[in-house]
C-alpha cells in the first residue's frame, strides 16, 4: 500500500463480536474516537471476528449499531471501505500467514503439542508444592513443556502452521518497557510477568497477538487505545514487532470500568451492556458521563 500516513494520527477501534459491548468498551472506544478527532486524524473500525467458534453475526451487527448510537464515527471500516480493506479479521488470513512465515523464518517460534486440558491440569496441580503460576492477565504461565532446549536448531520443514499450536519464545528476564500516553512508564519482564505465548492455534486459527500486530502494522496505526486489561498483551506485541523489525505504535491504556463489587466488566455482564442500558431509556450522554475518565 503506497499511501504514507506517517504524519497523520491513525487510531483504531477493534471490537470482537463475541458478546454485547459494555461500559468498558464504551470508555475505550469513545476515548479512541476523541483522541483521533482531537489529533485531526483518522479512525479505523476493525471487526476482530478472528475466532470462528466465538464470533456471531448478531453481535457484530449490534456493535456497529451501539457504537454509532453512542456518537462514535470512523473513516475506514467494513461498512466504509478504505485503503486497507478488508477490515474484518476473518477475511485477512493470507496476511496472518505471511507474518507467521516471517516469524518462523526469524527462529522465534516453536510448535507446541500441549492440549488445553493438559495446560489446565499443569496450572491446577503444581509440582513441588509451589503455587500454580498465573500470568497477571490470568493466562496460565506456560511451563515450557514443548520449548526446545538451548542449542537445538529451530524447527524446519514447516511451510504452514496448520495442525499444531505455535508459540513465540520469549527471552527469560528480558525487560519490555514503554511509555503509555495515559499511564506513564510501564515495564514487564518476560518469563516472570508472562511466558511463551501462542501465535497460531492447532485448530488453524491465528492467535489474537499475531493478528493484531499484523493488522496494526499494515493499517499504519500510530496509536493503539485499549483497556488496561491488555497491558501484558501490549508487552507481547512489542516483542512480535521487534522480531519482525517493525516500529510499534504508541499506546494509550484506559482504566477499566468496574461493577459495583469492584470487578471488571465482562461481556457476560449483560445488564450493563450498552444495549440493555439503551433499552432502559438511558441516553448516549448519560453513558458518556458515566465512563468519563
Ligand atoms: N478485540 C479486542 C477486544 O475486543 C481488543 C483488541 C485490541 O485492542 O488489541 O477486546
Give structural attributes.
about 290 residues; alpha/beta; three-stranded antiparallel β-sheet; 8 helices; 9 strands; binds glutamic acid
Q: What's the mean pLDDT score? A: 91
Low-confidence stretches: 126-132
Proportion of helical residues: 25-40%
Output the helix-strand order.
Answer: EHEHHEHEEEEHEHEHH
Strand proportion: 5-15%
General form: globular
What small ligands are held by the chains? glutamic acid
Global structural class: alpha/beta
Q: So how many helices? A: 8
* Sheet with the most strands, sense and barrel status: 3 strands, antiparallel
Number of strands: 9
Biggest sheet, strands in spatial order? Answer: 3-4-7
N-C termini distance: 36 Å
What does the radius of gyration come to?
A: 20 Å
Description:
This protein is α/β, with parallel strands linked by helices and 293 residues long. The protein is built from 8 helices and 9 strands. The strands form 4 sheets. The chain has a 3-stranded antiparallel beta sheet with strand order 3-4-7. It has a two-stranded parallel sheet with strand order 1-2. It has a two-stranded antiparallel sheet with strand order 5-6. A hairpin with a 3-residue loop joins strand 5 (175-180) and strand 6 (184-189). It is globular and about 60 Å long. Residues 126-132 have low confidence and may be disordered. The structure holds glutamic acid (GLU).
Summarize the structure.
With 293 residues, the protein is α/β, with parallel strands linked by helices. It contains eight helices and nine strands.
